[in-house]
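Budget justification note: compute hours in this period were largely spent on complex prediction jobs such as the one shown. Inputs:
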Amino acid sequence: MLHAVIMAGGSGTRFWPASRAAKPKQLLELAGHESMLRQTVDRLGDLVTPAQTLIVTNQRLVEPIVAQFPELPGESIVGEPCKRDTAPCIGLAALLVRRNDPDATMAVLPADHVIRSADRFQDALEQAAHLVDAEPDRIVTFGIRPSYPAEIFGYIQRGSRIDVRNGDAPAFMVKRFREKPDVTTATEYLSSGDFYWNSGIFVWKAKTILDALSQRQPEMLAHLQAIGDAWGTPQQAEVLEKEFTAIKGISIDYAVMEHAKNVAVIEAPYDWDDLGSWQALGRLLGTDHHDNTVVGRHLGIDTTGTIVRTNNEHLVVTIGLKDCLVVHTENATLVANKHDEEAVREVVKQLEARGWKEYL
Amino acid sequence: MLHAVIMAGGSGTRFWPASRAAKPKQLLELAGHESMLRQTVDRLGDLVTPAQTLIVTNQRLVEPIVAQFPELPGESIVGEPCKRDTAPCIGLAALLVRRNDPDATMAVLPADHVIRSADRFQDALEQAAHLVDAEPDRIVTFGIRPSYPAEIFGYIQRGSRIDVRNGDAPAFMVKRFREKPDVTTATEYLSSGDFYWNSGIFVWKAKTILDALSQRQPEMLAHLQAIGDAWGTPQQAEVLEKEFTAIKGISIDYAVMEHAKNVAVIEAPYDWDDLGSWQALGRLLGTDHHDNTVVGRHLGIDTTGTIVRTNNEHLVVTIGLKDCLVVHTENATLVANKHDEEAVREVVKQLEARGWKEYL
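Corresponding output:
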């Protein structure tokens, strides 16, 4: 049976002002009527039981997530005491998964991506689990066929084809992971046909990732093992705090993936978007005949290429805007040039510097 | 003793969303901590007593204005049943003023202009009253020395100089009124030195304006006289409704001023702004070193030439904006290119057409 580890610790600052410390992106209904996290869990369907679901988040969010997931056992929601990037998060999850199921295969899933449809996604996970069963030291990733020369995603270069079962999606050995390219390189990738967008979803044996950490990050693994040893004892919280804080943060890509040998990529049979920033809302929700994407009550005059997000009570009127972003929330409004949206993260830093905590 | 007639019936739609039907521009604190109307009344100081102050507004605003001016007798606030432009408003006021004071001199003042300082303004009104005393059929206007070739104001061309008392402002006969010019013409006006901006403030005998209406607008005057005859009787409201509605709307400029013979202009010794639109807020409140004008809590990144108005709780963040206008109110936000602001009036029309009354 497959285990699911859902990484739900992000701060989502690119989605300020909708995303706040107490209710970041993964807890928002950005795409659809359910939170991103709820959709991530529901998307797994019957493939993963509640007892085999683990949500790793930051400590502040444990309470709201527990409230949002009454069907999950309390121990399924783990709060990190501090941010240490993805490798420690995944390593800890692998330890906890292996405690109950030494041979466990686990899928690692970001909590804030958009994936359609659930059926095809479950099929792909099942296929990945099958590929891991066939070669237990295998790491399986999912590649998205690029539709444009995106500079905002990492890429996976595929190698030789892997035999798959009838009806399965095409699968390949991974030749190389590539960081976010410039547009020229991205255009080459696109035309070569050998490159996928890296969707950041992995399937592997818990043992595989722990072995890799043991080799590449022995210090990190020692801290994580100390946490694992104290897990379920009265010292759990104290040890978690102390040992996790002592870890040096690093991403799973740098810590493991770039050095891994037996990595496969399944060509994802589902639609995917990382919903990385407000601009993604346009891709996701589509645009009207003025190229605008609107959520909530809006009146636009001479407005094109603009993303507006408000609710159904608070009216946003735009006049003479082109390629802008207007996000209304209860106590803060963002008006930005759509192409400057990286600066949204800068806003959060400046708010912190000014001590304007009510907007964080 | 001078009478003051304050025209407070405007809808202020250019200041949407701050200005609403139930609380239009003249009732807002746009410049300073008091409403424009309150400042207009207070600016008169001891020159005009409460009993000699008349506020003409629309019927819906009588109640809030009565509440805002406890010092004024109830009959000092007159509500028009419908919009009929300035001539009927001024004609009715002249009739009501003359009932109590057949020889009355009255100043007609818009309720939504910015004037500094009150002392110099009172001096100018007193000088105007003196000029009317000297020639009872005289109409006195106030001209503002233009500081730039404005296309947004009407102009007054001055003629021969009128002798004034020691210490008085310069005064001239009016040669001609000029409508809002294009920029080339405005530039010529500016360099000629013979042109003033028309500030829309008049001083005259009530008799003078009624005589002029009798000559030029006999039908209007007949309606107004029917209202005057019923004033103070149980039929007042009914007759006002019927007769005022029957009047054909026309501005005092077209109805009277353009045909008037004995018109003087005093070179205003005070600073003036008609606060005609949001852009005026920049002129009025000044700009910071990024050329922005900000009221309320704002964080700007790469933002220039922009006007932001919010309160001290609701944060507005702007990124990569140039020459924009952002106005936050409780249930509506306007984001506009600053130069498209004439379209703000169009917004109000579209809101009416959609039946979105909560934003009007």
